[in-house]
């Protein structure tokens, strides 16, 4: 019988049972693709990560990320949490992932990850279609700056601004999301993640719904926060923009994501960081 060690951490928080929980297998050598997917489904978290030796010895590790149903090219809180687990390997880490190389800096035990790609914008989603998917009226969607639009820095989301009151009462409708996926297939097969945001003073409040991939609502989504920060910078003339994002409040798992976006030679790049708290450790026998 084979055994594999795991730990869980709460990510983007300074308190246990806040933030977004993550399971990490620090040494996943010997696990098959099917076993990784089965373990991610068994843990039933937004994502589970599996650490493997890097293809290039100049990098720290190869990190594979699975949600309940599929492998992901990149994700935010899995990288932050995995970096925190591997922080004894140095203050600067480099993770090989499907979307590209993810660079991490750790300061005061708070990892900051750089998204692997510059901002890319795709198809707009009709306002009525987006509103219906989250139980809102079209008038709840704010379009003075941009319409609901597909955005990515390594992992795609439909990003839409809504009013603060509407953000609180938004609720995903799986049936309507499945129907919308038939006509709006930009994020890829089997998923239509919707990321809503509202300005709240000097912060931004967000919620993320992705029921088609098994996550009805996510308490903290770094791979959506980064394209949001980049998108907000694209609406300005500044060279750099800092964004403090609050997510997970409606779920009882408040999360704090510290984002930056800056203009680079290849476009707008973004980072996200935050705190982590250890929760569980154990082993799996297969």
Number of helices: 6
Please identify which CATH superfamily of the largest domain we are dealing with: Diaminopimelate Epimerase, Chain A, domain 1
CATH topology of the largest domain: Diaminopimelate Epimerase, Chain A, domain 1
Task: Give me the count of strands.
Answer: 19
Distance between the termini: 6 Å
Uncertain segments: none
Q: How does the overall form come out from the CA principal axes?
A: globular
Describe the structure in your own words.
- It contains six helices and 19 strands.
- The mean pLDDT is 96.
- The protein is globular and about 55 Å long.
- It has two domains: 125 residues, Diaminopimelate Epimerase, Chain A, domain 1 (Roll); 154 residues, Diaminopimelate Epimerase, Chain A, domain 1 (Roll).
- It has a 19-stranded mixed beta sheet that branches.
- The chain has 286 residues and is of the alpha+beta class.
């Amino acid at each position: 019988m084979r055994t594999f060690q795991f730990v869980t951490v709460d990510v983007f928080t300074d308190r246990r049972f806040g933030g977004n929980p993550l399971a990490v297998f620090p040494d996943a050598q010997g696990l098959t693709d099917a076993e990784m997917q089965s373990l991610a489904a068994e843990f039933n978290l937004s994502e589970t990560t599996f650490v493997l030796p890097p293809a290039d010895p100049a990098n720290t590790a190869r990190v594979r990320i699975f949600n309940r149903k599929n492998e992901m090219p990149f994700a935010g809180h899995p990288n932050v949490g995995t970096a925190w687990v591997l922080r004894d390997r140095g203050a600067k880490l480099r993770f090989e992932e499907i979307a590209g190389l993810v660079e991490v800096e750790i300061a005061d035990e708070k990892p900051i990850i750089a998204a692997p790609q510059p901002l890319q914008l795709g198809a707009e989603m009709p306002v009525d279609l987006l509103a219906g998917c989250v139980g809102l009226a079209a008038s709840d969607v704010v379009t003075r700056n941009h319409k609901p639009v597909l955005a990515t820095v390594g992992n795609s989301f439909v990003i839409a601004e809504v009013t603060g009151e509407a953000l609180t009462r938004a609720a995903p409708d799986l049936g309507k999301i499945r129907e919308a996926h038939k006509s709006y297939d930009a994020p890829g097969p089997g998923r239509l993640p919707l990321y809503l945001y509202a300005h709240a003073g000097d912060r931004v409040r967000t919620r993320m719904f992705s029921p088609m991939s098994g996550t009805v609502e996510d308490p903290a989504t770094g791979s959506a926060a980064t394209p949001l920060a980049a998108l907000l910078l694209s609406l300005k003339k500044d060279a750099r923009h800092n964004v403090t994002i609050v997510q997970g409040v409606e779920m009882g798992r408040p999360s704090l994501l510290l984002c930056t976006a800056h203009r680079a030679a290849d476009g707008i790049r973004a980072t996200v960081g935050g705190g982590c708290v250890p929760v569980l450790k154990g082993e799996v026998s297969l």
